[in-house]
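Sequence in, structure out. Go.
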Amino acid sequence: MNFSIIRSLRYFDWMSFAIIICLSCIGLAFIYSATYKPELPLSLFFKKQLIGTIIGILIYLLYSFVY
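Output:
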């Protein structure tokens, strides 16, 4: 394995990443429960928030491994 990859994983801020994932999941759960309808389980608001969360996490990971 490349030393740069090992170093990036070793010094990655895992606590910050875990907090971001937890808060994102809580936010998604709140939006899901607030907009749930039996005939339409996934509302437009939930889908938008999910897409935004995924894009945000990908940007976070991209910039955390770029020096």
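Check: The chain has one domain: 13-65. Residues 32 and 57 are 19 Å apart (CA to CA).
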